[in-house]
Amino acid sequence: GAVTRAGFRAPFSSVGPTADGRLKPDVAAMGVNVKVARHFEQAYGVASGTSFSCPLTAGVVALALQAHPEYTVDDVLTVMRSAASQADAPDTLLGWGIVNAVAAVDMPLPAPVAAARRR
Question: Fewer C-beta within 10 Å: the chain N or C terminus?
């Protein structure tokens, strides 16, 4: 999902649940008035869209994987959700909340997930 600088859901950002009842979005990131490079103008500008919140989220995933190369896809999803701003009360507007890069990198896998991997 996409949010404003103040952390409010962008009006163009999709909401959940999915058709099969899953909670979506998973997480959200800045997607309104994001500073971008404008190729044709050879300058910087601002743009809005989930097209801009997605690469910010992907960057956090890359940081988490660099810090923890042993993480599986499910591990990354768990950490991203657990480190987000509303991890304790996810909803259908922002999912588990706004991504937190430092928390996602620093957070160990939650104990139940880590224990299940050792089996």
Answer: C
